[in-house]
Amino acid sequence: MNNQLIEVKDLCKYFPAGKGNTLKAVDHVNLTINRGETLGLVGESGCGKTTCGRTILKLYQPTAGQVIFDGKDISGLKGKELLKFKKRAQIIFQDPYSSLDPRMTIGEIIAEGMDVHCNYNKKERDAKVAELLNSVGMKEDYANRFAHELSGGQRQRVGIARALAVDPDFIVCDEPISALDVSIQAQVVNLLIKLQRERGLTYLFISHDLSMVRHISDRVGVMYLGSLVEMTGSGEIFAHPLHPYTKVLMSAIPVADPEANGSEEELEIKGEVPSPVHAPSGCKFRTRCSYATDICAQEVPELREVTEGHFVACHHCGESGEQQKNA
Amino acid sequence: MQNIPIEKFQITGLNENSMEAASRPQVGYLRDAWMRLRKNKVATASLILLFVIVLMVMIGPKLSGYAFEQIDKTARNAAPCAKHWFGTDKLGRDIFARVWISGRVSLTIGVLGALICAVIGCIYGGIAAYFGGAVDTVMMRIVEILISVPYLIVVIVFSLVLQSKGILTLILAMTITGWCTMARFVRAQMLAIKNEEYILAAQALGVRPWKVILRHMIPNTLSTVIVSITFDIPGYIFSEAFLSYIGLGIQPPNTSWGVMASSAQSVFTFYPYQLFFPAVMIALTMLCFTLLGDGLRDALDPKLRK
């Protein structure tokens, strides 16, 4: 059996941005996600992480490219086939306040997916809701409550339970922790890890919190302005970032140990993120990159394998790596 | 720090679930709203008063023993007394009977007008919001054109064209442009709801579009629509009263609160009670509907649940 659960090929999602402009939210992204692993997707706000996740789930119709889920191209799916895909691929949303219908009880919210995909009678349905609530660490009598009676962390767990209700294989976690405070973040992430172990789930974990991504991910992809700039194992990317953008990102992670300070120099980044409507030609990062040369403006760098399992989209990454070693 | 062997640690039994106790009995959304409405004393009083008015409108004309168009030549412009509880008008007609018969017309116009507008407005606004884009633009421009036509002109044109000034003509004339405000309102509501993540979540779960509209979009709009209906009803009652008052509405021998007030106005200084009773009925009904609408808005919002 193929180890890859999801293969994304040249995925593009453009939005019309008025006056004939297009906003390239996702621009030729290639990635694969193996069964049972967690792929972290990081990048700053507005770089297309969320759009990428939603397009993979076919919540947005891709402009170009393919998403192959378990050997099947999902772009042409319709009717029952599409429903089958939706049963297997789910999403957890960022904002726990807008992702739950204020007029439905928690039980109804969780059961919504079951009503579509499973033919349970009322008793089975209630039992399943109670079981799901328990598995996300909540008591079953929460089923009769309304969403506004719960705290942010509890709401997010309800969101997780709703996604789990249809027994999916793959879940896009779309910044599930960014709206929560720090103590609750850890609870939710650990819950996600626990559920992954129990149910053999595959995650696409979208976040801008690098330390959390390091904690949960097996591999990490870094996005900049709609393109994937670097992708490798999560240990490798934090130890040896190759793309200039990734290096800056990594140097921005706060270090918890005050005594360890000073060993790493803090890299700075020039200027602002360019508008995705008028992205720079060639390498999109070149306007802010200190290594940029002529070739960066002319050619779009391909994502290439520099060392084993380490993909970088940069014309200079080999050299810059050497530069760093020499220094 | 010393190294403490892990065996020395033990879980003291802090159970997360035990902190999250407190449960409530299972109640549906509507029953819950009903319970909250009943706790609101002002709204409950309004509801009871409205119920009494409706009851009286149904049985009231029979209580006094006079028909509403029956003329008592011996008692013209009689003050309220044991024989004529609310007095009589200048033709000697019993005001008590007339007030309730008028109520039938006024309430029918109010409720029917508001309901018709709500239904048309919901469908129109819902379609505009759901399809969006060019459909939305065209539909909303039509609404704006209709809204800009003064409704007095519409009423006059309708009564000329249909050659009648009955209750149906009035309802038709008032609703022909009246639904536009509701359509705008519903569209705005639905547009806001359409962007909520729970709609996206339902789509991700594979819930069919019509079910998304039925289970999420309509219930989340409905409470505001119900509230705005209760606010619209007094508006229609008042419009009818106003139109009848200036002579464009209900024609004799039929009567409504507006007609009664209009005919009592000429003799107001001598017989103030002739104006008093229909005016009080208009005021009471409008107040009750407004207060009830206020209470409903609070009751239908689950965020206010205690």
TrEMBL record, chain A:
SUPFAM superfamilies documented for this protein: P-loop containing nucleoside triphosphate hydrolases
Keyword flag Transport: yes
Highest rank taxon of the organism: Bacteria
Family matches, as PROSITE patterns: ABC_TRANSPORTER_1, ABC_TRANSPORTER_2
InterPro entries, sorted: AAA+_ATPase, ABC_transp_ATP-bind, ABC_transporter-like_ATP-bd, ABC_transporter-like_CS, Oligopep_ABC_C, P-loop_NTPase
Keywords: ATP-binding, Nucleotide-binding, Transport
Family, similarity comment: Belongs to the ABC transporter superfamily.
Name the record gives this protein: Oligopeptide transport system ATP-binding protein
Organism the protein comes from: Hespellia stercorisuis DSM 15480
UniProtKB/TrEMBL annotation, chain B:
InterPro entries referenced in this protein's UniProt entry, alphabetically: BP-dependent_transpt_permease, MetI-like, MetI-like_sf, OppC_N
Pfam families the record matches: BPD_transp_1, OppC_N
Span of the signal peptide: none
Compartment(s) of residence: Cell membrane
Keyword list, A-Z: Cell membrane, Membrane, Transmembrane, Transmembrane helix, Transport
Lipid bilayer topology: Multi-pass membrane protein
One of the GO biological process terms: transmembrane transport
Gene3D superfamilies noted in UniProt: MetI-like
Transmembrane segments: 42-60, 107-130, 142-161, 167-186, 218-238, 275-296
GO cellular component, one term: plasma membrane
Segments forming domain ABC transmembrane type-1: 103-293
Top-level taxon in the UniProt lineage: Bacteria
Family stated for the protein in its record: Belongs to the binding-protein-dependent transport system permease family.
Protein name as catalogued: Oligopeptide transport system permease protein
Organism of derivation: Hespellia stercorisuis DSM 15480
